[in-house]
């Protein structure tokens, strides 16, 4: 730091006189750069197992924590499902009682409730089955496979793109196919 401070002329000349005339500039300490690189690579290779093991240990801890969180989530979803089922039953019991008090025979009220629930269940299953084809990731599989594409029959100019051909996977663009 003293070298950076302004000094009287007598001190400056003595500092220059004491400095070695053949001193190597900083950064060029006489070591071969390839030796320095080799030393750095060796040091990196010595530290690499520690770095990797730290990352693997962190991954293992996070996987354990995420597994416990997933188990809790599944338990909470099951509990919510049970509570929703009891609420659903209570709702339909209330509707059934209201229908019976309105003068409808209890048999007809139960039949109406049963048909409404079966219709809703059928619609839910039908929708689930149409969504099931997306579980196989068809567009990703088409893009990632290395085999040559199979020739597909050419569609005429007047073919409607909004309806897929029978038995063929839906290969319409996302803007035409819609999103699930």
Automatic annotation (TrEMBL):
**Per the database entry, which stretches of residues form a coiled coil?**
none
- Keyword terms, alphabetized: Membrane, Transmembrane, Transmembrane helix
Which top-level group of life is the source organism from? Bacteria
Which InterPro entries does its entry note?
A: Phage_holin_3_6
Membrane-crossing residue ranges in chain numbering: 73-99, 105-125
Return any one Pfam family short name: Phage_holin_3_6
According to UniProt, the name of this protein is Phage holin family protein
């Amino acid at each position: 730091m003293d070298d950076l401070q302004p000094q009287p002329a007598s001190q400056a000349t003595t500092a220059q006189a004491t400095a070695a005339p053949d001193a190597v500039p900083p950064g060029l300490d006489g070591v071969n750069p390839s030796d320095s690189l080799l030393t750095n690579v060796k040091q990196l290779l010595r530290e690499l197992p520690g770095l990797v093991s730290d990352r693997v240990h962190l991954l293992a801890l996070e996987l354990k924590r995420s597994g416990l969180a997933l188990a809790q989530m599944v338990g909470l979803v099951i509990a919510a499902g049970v509570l929703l089922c009891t609420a659903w039953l209570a709702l339909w019991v209330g509707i059934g009682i209201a229908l019976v008090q309105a003068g409808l025979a209890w048999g007809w009220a139960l039949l109406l409730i049963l048909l409404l629930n079966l219709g809703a269940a059928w619609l839910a299953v039908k929708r689930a089955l149409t969504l099931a084809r997306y579980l196989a990731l068809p567009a990703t599989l088409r893009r990632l496979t290395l085999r040559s594409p199979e020739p597909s029959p050419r569609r005429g100019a007047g073919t409607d793109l909004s309806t897929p051909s029978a038995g063929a996977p839906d290969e319409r663009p996302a803007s035409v196919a819609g999103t699930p």
